[in-house]
Design a protein that fits this description.
Number of domains: 3
CATH topology of the largest domain: Cobalt-precorrin-4 Transmethylase, domain 1
Oligomer: single chain
Shape: flat
Largest sheet: 5 strands, mixed, barrel
Helix content: 40-55%
Radius of gyration: 26 Å
Strand order of the largest sheet: 1-3-2-4-5
């Protein structure tokens, strides 16, 4: 499967036009394509009947856009499969395996395991021989590895200069989290450290808790993070970046 650069440019221009951007200069800035290039492709799209004289997308143009994006989706999907086939995944062996053996894959306590091939679910091929409980590599992974649905719960509270009774805040936090279902607790900042000491709870994550929470979520664990408003705002860019890389992870924010 081959995709020409001209096709990609024309599809992106059509997509912008469909979304209301009709001025070539506007499209040029949006796509980081030269103005001359946008004008050139718009001329071709008009000749093909995909854009009318008002620079609006036509029915034929919409069909071209829809089919083109589906074509690219198929290309991306097949490319990812090829990449996955060449990747080597770290796994823990549940049995003795030979190199080149087909094994079933599953998550257990947050770690990827390889067991005897069952014919169901995710599977791959071992890249080297291994004994039980050793770490080995698996490639040519197929099907989806089942992971328990997880989320990140962030509980924020007032900054220190607005706080006059830590015991009251700790009680509010205690009342809120007592009915929550989570696997780990993480803290960020000195106020969170003080608060969790009052509650008599030992946190699993004390440093880089945001990153640790997302890593835990990728492995099927839900993490509760206690954080002051100040540290939460300091962490916003980091949270947004991690969310963009992990769009399937649910994130809940509660202020107490």
């Amino acid at each position: 499967m081959k995709i020409e650069q001209a096709l990609i440019s024309q599809l992106m221009i059509l997509l912008n036009i469909k979304n209301g951007k009709t001025r070539p200069s506007e499209i040029s800035k949006e796509l980081d394509i030269t103005l001359q290039g946008v004008v050139y492709h718009i001329k071709i799209l008009k000749e093909k009947g995909f854009i009318d004289e008002k620079n609006s997308i036509t029915k034929e143009g919409f069909d071209f856009l829809y089919n083109g994006l589906n074509y690219i989706e198929d290309f991306v999907h097949s490319s990812l499969i090829n990449i996955d086939s060449s990747l080597v995944w770290e796994v823990i062996s549940d049995h003795d395996f030979e190199s080149g053996q087909k094994v079933s894959l599953y998550m257990d306590k947050g770690y990827l395991h390889a067991g005897p091939y069952t014919g169901q679910g995710s599977f791959g091929i071992t890249v080297k021989a291994s004994n039980k409980d050793e770490c080995t590599g698996v490639t040519s992974v197929r099907e989806i590895i089942k992971i328990k649905k997880s989320r990140i719960i962030i509980v924020a509270f007032n900054n220190v200069e607005k706080t006059f009774d830590m015991n009251a805040i700790s009680q509010n936090v205690k009342d809120y989290i007592k009915n929550l279902d989570f696997d780990f607790i993480g803290i960020t900042g000195e106020m969170a450290r003080t608060l969790i000491d009052i509650l008599g709870i030992k946190p699993e994550f004390e440093f880089a808790s945001i990153n640790a929470a997302f890593e835990a979520a990728r492995r099927g664990f839900t993490t509760l993070i206690l954080i002051s408003d100040r540290f939460f705002h300091f962490s916003l860019n980091e949270i947004r970046e991690l969310q963009s890389k992990n769009p399937t992870i649910e994130l809940d924010l509660k202020h107490v």
